[in-house]
Design goal:
heterodimer, A: alpha+beta, 10-stranded antiparallel beta barrel, 5 helices, 44% strand, elongated, B: alpha+beta, Jelly Rolls, 2 domains, 4-stranded antiparallel β-sheet, 25% helix
Chain lengths: 384, 206
């Protein structure tokens, strides 16, 4: 037992050290993404970050009836998220003087209608959305080199048309598959560990997670053990790190319950609160850029014209999940599937293989030797 | 009984794996390319022009970083929309056009695209693609006003899409009609500064 505890501790220490393995190369934005401003890149990718966070916090639990003996298992699950329509678009920031018709007039064609002089923000597709809309602009005085606007100097008055990235028309997004090692303890505690290194631009990005669950209904004798009902709390922490460039962490905390039947089926459900935070930093590739590149020179965003690094906070739309599912165990295999209501509703399915179980308490049964049986039989016969 | 359960589990598992792997494949396919629009700007400044007449602008997409960096991976380049507006115009007496008091109206302005061949513009009119026509172009309405946007016809866009994959050099020909109420065969415009932007959708492999 001590060996197992030591092994688990070593594994955890390895995870923590691995996440801090230092890489030196900053992430370079590939050629496709250099025309994003920080805000627009954040808006464009926020639904994708939500999917990543949701998939990390999937498959944290099935049954809330944890055994009072040791066991080890391996769980593999895959999931997918339904993308709601409101996450297919974001409010893209527009060039500073858009909307000020004395500096620049603009117009766009959307669904057959001309929309004029938009300013501030305008709806554009996220990574899951559809086509984007180019906004055509006409400066009102081309000869002015700089214009003071809202206390800031607009780079020039030759305000140019603004264009945006398009989405990929995705309504169902496959999540990150999860492979996790499971260890269950006699205290009716279960620990799940995940670890995945991924190469990103010649450096390793490390993903690791710790999920801890504790059954508690038996402390208060809430249910008759013969009813096979369990109640448990769970906590999960995930980290994805590629230093420098990407740091993402997410957590989930919640309660779950289950009811099992003798033939192997278990119904389970739970609620959880989730949070996600992190930062993305990258450099725009400048190697081949020339000041004479028309698109760089004509870009209406000073930030893009200037180049330089890009950085934004990673955020998720989701903070709550309500989940229900079924699991069926036969032998060492447990098949489980669940559906969850969340910002992006989730379907999750997986298989758990229970490799080893030990330390089971023996059931108290009366053992009657053969000769005892004969004696008892004779005694009963006499009484008759 | 136990064996039966095992077979059920195995069958369900296989079905799920097949279903979800197809979902994963769809997602991977969708995310294997990146689409963006690029607005290409034409600043056309001309002196001593007449109506009717044509103007010619040359464009080389290699001058655009987004194109140059991605050209080996371009799957599609669809010409979507374009707009046209006039920034400055001088009338025959070399007086700047005043949109509040002057009235100049072209019957039409047509825009054609023709790909460069052998370092020059082919003379064959059959190689011109009509991008669109603005009719009854009242200069006052088009004066520093970007709201005149045309959608490139689908059939033309299809042809251009194929051609631009191999040839990023093309000309835009603007054909100006005569002015409404024009007296002589040619109406003089000592100075024209016009602009048109073309929105192109690029799809590149990641």
């Amino acid at each position: 037992m001590r060996k197992l505890t030591n092994a688990l501790l070593s594994l955890m220490i390895f995870f923590l050290i691995s996440s801090n393995l230092t890489s030196t190369e900053p992430i370079k934005l590939t050629k496709n993404f250099t025309f994003f401003t920080e805000k627009n890149m954040q808006g464009y990718f926020k639904p994708l970050i939500t999917s990543v966070g949701e998939s990390m916090n999937s498959n944290l639990f099935t049954r809330a009836l944890y055994p009072d003996y040791w066991s080890i298992g391996l769980d593999i699950s895959i999931m997918g998220m339904f993308i709601p329509d409101d996450q297919k678009y974001y409010d893209a920031e527009l060039p500073l003087a858009y909307g000020n018709t004395s500096v620049v007039k603009n117009a766009l064609l959307s669904e057959g209608a001309i929309i004029k002089d938009v300013g501030g923000t305008y709806k554009q597709p996220t990574v899951y959305g559809g086509p984007s809309t180019t906004i055509f602009a006409a400066p009102q005085n081309k000869f002015t080199k700089t214009t003071s606007y809202n206390g800031e100097l607009v780079p020039d008055s030759s305000y140019k048309s603004a264009y945006f990235a398009e989405g990929n028309d995705i309504s169902f997004m496959a999540g990150l598959p999860s492979i996790q090692l499971i260890g269950a303890f006699p205290s009716r505690t279960e620990l799940r560990l995940r670890f995945l290194p991924l190469p990103v631009q010649n450096e390793m990005m490390i993903y690791w997670a710790v999920i801890l669950k504790q059954q508690f209904d038996h402390f208060f004798n809430l249910f008759d053990p013969d009813d096979h009902i369990g109640l448990a709390v769970h906590f999960a922490y995930h980290s994805m790190n590629r230093d420098p460039g990407l740091s993402l962490s997410t957590f989930a905390v919640g309660v779950h319950a289950s009811k099992a039947w003798d033939f192997g089926l278990t119904a389970y459900g739970g609620i959880q609160y989730e949070g996600l935070s992190g930062e993305f930093k990258a450099e725009r590739e400048r190697g081949k850029t020339s000041v004479l590149d028309f698109d760089v020179m004509n870009n209406p965003y000073p930030e893009v014209r200037k180049g330089g690094p890009i950085s934004f906070a990673l955020e998720s739309f989701n903070s709550f999940r309500l989940l229900g599912g079924l699991s069926y165990r036969t032998g060492i295999v447990e098949l489980h599937a669940d559906a969850a209501y969340a910002s992006q509703p989730i379907l999750n399915i997986g298989l758990t293989f229970w490799f080893a179980e030990w330390g089971k308490k023996e059931e108290k049964t009366e053992s009657i030797e053969r000769y005892e049986k004969i004696e008892r039989y004779e005694r009963i016969k006499k009484n008759d | 009984m136990k064996n039966k359960n095992k077979y059920i589990i195995l069958t369900i598992s296989l079905l799920i794996v097949v279903f979800l792997s197809s979902c994963y494949q769809n997602t991977i396919d969708a995310l294997s390319s990146f689409k963006f629009q690029l607005a290409i700007l034409f600043d056309s400044e001309y002196r001593n022009k007449f109506a009717p007449d044509t103007t010619i602008d040359f464009i080389n997409l290699d001058d655009y970083k987004q194109y140059r960096d991605n050209k080996d991976r371009i799957k599609k380049a669809q010409f979507l929309q374009f707009n046209y507006w006039i920034d400055s115009l001088h009338l025959a007496n070399n007086r700047p056009f005043n949109p509040k008091t002057d009235n100049v109206e072209f019957e039409f302005i047509k825009f054609y695209l023709v790909f460069q061949e052998g370092g020059g513009m082919p003379s064959d009119p059959g190689k011109r693609f009509l991008l669109g026509t603005f009719n009854n172009v009242n200069v006052s309405n088009y004066y520093r006003n970007p709201e005149h946007i045309l959608v490139v016809p689908e059939d033309v866009a299809k042809v251009i899409e194929e051609a631009v994959k191999v040839n990023p050099r093309f000309y835009i020909i603007s054909e100006y009609s005569k002015v409404k109420g024009q007296q002589g065969p040619k109406e003089s415009f000592p100075y024209i500064w016009a602009r048109f932007d073309i929105a192109i959708r690029f799809e590149v492999s990641l």
